Amino acid sequence: MQHTGIDGAAVPASSATSGSPAPAPASAPDANPWQDTIAAADQALEEAARLQRGVQHNLKLMQDVRALREELRKAHAEIDRYRGMHARVVVSMRQLEEAHTSAMSRLHADSEMLRVRHRVYRLLAEHYARVALRLDPQTFAADRDRVLQHILFQRRKGVPPEDIGLSDLAFLLL
């Protein structure tokens, strides 16, 4: 005699625990298939619920990944914007530095020339005051040009204009 197990498979009578066949209740053959079907359905529902939770978790993770990608895209866009701003600032700073350098060199040259001219006029004024000559504009212009040439020549040799005195120019103004 064979018995059906929980899974509905036939079990030989020799494998029964008591060794003697137990009388089966009248509703047992009808109840076992239903119980097996209900247990299988419960197991399938649990598996389906587990799969649904897994799919929901996977969808949530995909949404999180999309959100993170969007944040990353925005961060890259912001980085690019700041790089552009930085590049423009660096270019303008370099342009300002070049303009400042050229303006400084021009002002330095103008300052040096004014110092030389100031020295020329001061030396000529001392000369004319000492000699007590009448100030003739043509004579003054000629003397000014000669003194200026002499001071520029001395400056190229490394002598500062302040070190040139009236005694150094006496041979030019005779």
Automatic annotation (TrEMBL):
<feature type="region of interest" description="Disordered">
    <location>
        <begin position="1"/>
        <end position="33"/>
    </location>
</feature>
<feature type="coiled-coil region">
    <location>
        <begin position="58"/>
        <end position="85"/>
    </location>
</feature>
<keyword id="KW-0175">Coiled coil</keyword>
<feature type="compositionally biased region" description="Low complexity">
    <location>
        <begin position="9"/>
        <end position="31"/>
    </location>
</feature>
<protein>
    <submittedName>
        <fullName>Uncharacterized protein</fullName>
    </submittedName>
</protein>
